[in-house]
Specification:
Elements (H helix, E strand, L loop, with lengths): L5 E12 L6 E12 L3 E5 L6 H9 L6 E6 L2 E3 L6 E4 L11 H12 L3 H14 L15 H13 L5 E5 L7 H17 L4 E4 L3 H7 L2 E5 L6 E6 L7 H5 L4 H11 L15
Parallel strand pairs: 3-8, 3-9, 6-7, 7-8
Antiparallel strand pairs: 1-2, 1-4, 4-5, 9-10
Bound molecules: adenosine-5'-triphosphate and magnesium ion.
The site of adenosine-5'-triphosphate has 11 residues, from β2 and α1.
Amino acid sequence: MAAAPIQLSVRNIHKAFAGKGPEVRVLDGLNFDIHEQDFVSIIGPSGCGKTTIFNIIAGLIEPDAGNLVYRGEEVPSLRGQVGYMMQKDLLFPWRTVLGNVLLGLEMRGVDRRAAVDRAREHLHAFGLAGFENAYPKTLSGGMRQRVALIRTLIMDPGILLLDEPFSALDYQTRLYLEGVLKQAVETFNKTVVLVTHDIDEAVALSKRVVVLSGRPARVKTVHDIDIAEHSPIAARSDHRFAGYFRTLCGELDIQTEAKQPETTAS
Ligand SMILES: Nc1ncnc2c1ncn2[C@@H]1O[C@H](COP(=O)(O)OP(=O)(O)OP(=O)(O)O)[C@@H](O)[C@H]1O
Ligand SMILES: [Mg+2]
């Protein structure tokens, strides 16, 4: 099958932050491509610059050098084209579930009735029908994450940037939401870039995994994940799953074999 056209190219992006001491070099010439309707996960050590590259793509900060090419055109950022679910995505406590979901559509000036219809459709698809008038504090963590995800999806962005959307959740809820996400992006034909610390989540969900080195980050490798299973749970029992998992652990220098305790001479 021919590869889908490239939607976004990240080209030679550099970024350093000024600190109290010497500046911190965070991104050191980052290069990768995202194809139309891709599902790419980015993994790398904590603090290597994953959120920073998302902030640059979303136009919240500027790179020091390098550029972004979106659908063949060089652009300063993808501001207005991305749906960005930030690492700590907070819902507004004074707005109901429906109010939170409608926020972006209101700002865009979408007709109220059409916006509410669209919101209800999404809430239904994510198992939140009946919670329209609930306030965030009365929801479980998994429900709040679903609301935040809907708020991102409902804007119908060209690309979804999801920064560790499930990391604070228990394993069972995470498995469930991975399935909901996968189904939603296939239904709505979305392109997703996901940052995760969870290698198993990256393998189960993605078509490709980009591995970043420690700071200053560069792309260490890009792995194609050739698992045809659509459901993230079924993907975990695919015979290739363990191989990918082990390879990626190796890339991140995570030991997969327990070390034998050293024997001391007596
Ligand atoms: N606005 C900023 N000002 C100064 N330093 C920053 C800023 N944003 C990020 N940094 C620094 O850049 C580095 C990378 O941060 P970033 O948040 O991108 O890492 P990350 O890979 O997302 O980490 P994690 O996996 O823990 O979320 C860190 O050393 C951080 O302290
Ligand atoms: Mg981060």
